């Protein structure tokens, strides 16, 4: 393990985060928030200088091997969540390190869990920074670095394998850097389209930009304490559409620009829409009554928001019946398609698990039969992929159970115990990068009541979930650090 090379990569990524803070400085200046602009500017200079110093001090890497790619990604995400907290601390918006790191982690990992009771009271510069952290983290700051920072000069595929959601990076071109650029162009184009559509409704341009950032990243930060419930039905339908888009594979979107039939040909996309439809129908039936249009819109919005791990809310689903609350927690384990900005398990893995289970059952009935795992028209899924998916799911569930236990323990020791529902849903939401949970961390509440140790635990789970466990897990493997 060439630690100097890893620090070179981390320094470059941290410097990029510092440069991105300039956008928040500009927003603060435009709204005449002079002290806020000064604070964010100080954070930007500090972050950029530290990043550039580390980048210049350590060696320029050659090709990174697989284990170095995983290590670089894990270290980089930890670093950006720490430095991303500086604008909150330098402006005094958040007064302590724990809460600031929690908010930054929730931003970059697109989790959307917040310790801020009313975002509407925040300065405009900080509001934009919150949204920008999610937009940057949505497609992945490592992929961004691959696309626009060729000076890194490293093995792009190794970084992509470690950072990209899903079983493996979906290449559109032989060179991954070109693939990353095309995916970012699609990402930017959808973001601009949503800005225009939301601006045409009841949102100001500033609100439209913020919500477009946090929708396309499936992040869920809003500019209002009421989330999307504070805006019109038109705005909610626009956000529903773009949440569905963001939860689908961006590689699929790119291919569909030339051939729209690609959507219909994708078995995973059909399953993704089927899960959304089924969940929406169940919520509609469970909440039937009152104004029909509001019920239907609220049910679809909630189902799409949770499945895509966006975390917006228009209704307080914490007040629903037990059956629907259990379903909401279950949906936190679904996620969007592989290659989307959504978190959680992903529909591709669920499909592989289901088909592999069917094959195992058939082998029990016909011991001498050969029953490979098949998915749609893709044909046979290699055994290595099936095993990788099964291992990931096992680790994911282990992380969920362990995290729930640890959160219950630390909250009890701190003297402010969370109930079982709050603890379990907070861990499921953090690990799946969803945002709101149930009980004390429901959509009408926030995470401020979680004890400090619990916030550090949840922040860690957000990063673990965003990187899909392995890059962080490998940092604790002794073999990784051996030459």
What's the topology here?
Elements: H1 3-30, H2 34-57, H3 66-83, H4 86-91, H5 97-108, H6 124-139, H7 141-148, H8 156-163, H9 176-199, H10 205-216, H11 233-246, H12 250-258, H13 261-265, H14 267-286, H15 292-307, H16 322-331, H17 347-365, E1 374-375, E2 379-380, H18 383-413, H19 420-431, H20 452-466, H21 470-474
Antiparallel strand pairs: 1-2
Helix pairs in contact: 1-2, 1-3, 1-6, 3-5, 3-8, 5-6, 5-20, 6-10, 7-9, 9-10, 9-11, 9-12, 10-11, 11-15, 14-15, 17-18, 18-19, 18-20, 19-20
Overall description:
- By secondary structure, the chain is mainly α.
- It is 65% helix and 1% strand.
- The protein contains 21 helices and two strands.
- It has helices at 3-30, 34-57, 66-83, 86-91, 97-108, 124-139, 141-148, 156-163, 176-199, 205-216, 233-246, 250-258, 261-265, 267-286, 292-307, 322-331, 347-365, 383-413, 420-431, 452-466, 470-474; strands at residues 374-375, 379-380.
- The protein has a two-stranded antiparallel sheet.
- A hairpin with a 3-residue loop joins strand 1 and strand 2.
- The longest helix is centred in the C-terminal third of the chain and has 31 residues, at 383-413.
- It is globular.
- The N and C termini lie close together (5 Å).
- The relative contact order is 0.11.
